[in-house]
Amino acid sequence: MSLNEVWEAASAHPYSPIISKNSQFFVGFTLLFAALIFTGLFGLNRSFTSIASFGIPASLAFGFGAVYMICAVGVYV
């Protein structure tokens, strides 16, 4: 398949994101709030099991929430 054929085939199916631009602020705010809650719970109970149950979800929620919030306010990364 040549590059021109790939280009023509891709033009028939435009990209549409899973989370629309209108709901990025809500998703970002929710993830950042969840990260705040998980971080607080992790700080109250520091054990090896709390790393998996609170630490990892807190860091993932903060990472994705920060990106969604940055995109929601118009700064594109």
UniProtKB/TrEMBL annotation:
Q: What does this protein do?
A: Subunit of the oligosaccharyl transferase (OST) complex that catalyzes the initial transfer of a defined glycan (Glc(3)Man(9)GlcNAc(2) in eukaryotes) from the lipid carrier dolichol-pyrophosphate to an asparagine residue within an Asn-X-Ser/Thr consensus motif in nascent polypeptide chains, the first step in protein N-glycosylation. N-glycosylation occurs cotranslationally and the complex associates with the Sec61 complex at the channel-forming translocon complex that mediates protein translocation across the endoplasmic reticulum (ER). All subunits are required for a maximal enzyme activity.
Which organism does this sequence originate in? Penicilliopsis zonata CBS 506.65
Tell me what this protein is called.
Dolichyl-diphosphooligosaccharide-protein glycosyltransferase subunit OST5
Listed under subunit, the entry gives: Component of the oligosaccharyltransferase (OST) complex.
Q: Which keywords does UniProt give here?
A: Membrane, Transmembrane, Transmembrane helix
Membrane-spanning residues where? 25-44, 51-76
- Point out the signal peptide segment: none
Q: Name one GO biological process term.
A: protein N-linked glycosylation
Lineage, broadest ranks:
Eukaryota, Fungi, Dikarya, Ascomycota, Pezizomycotina
Topology with regard to the membrane? Multi-pass membrane protein
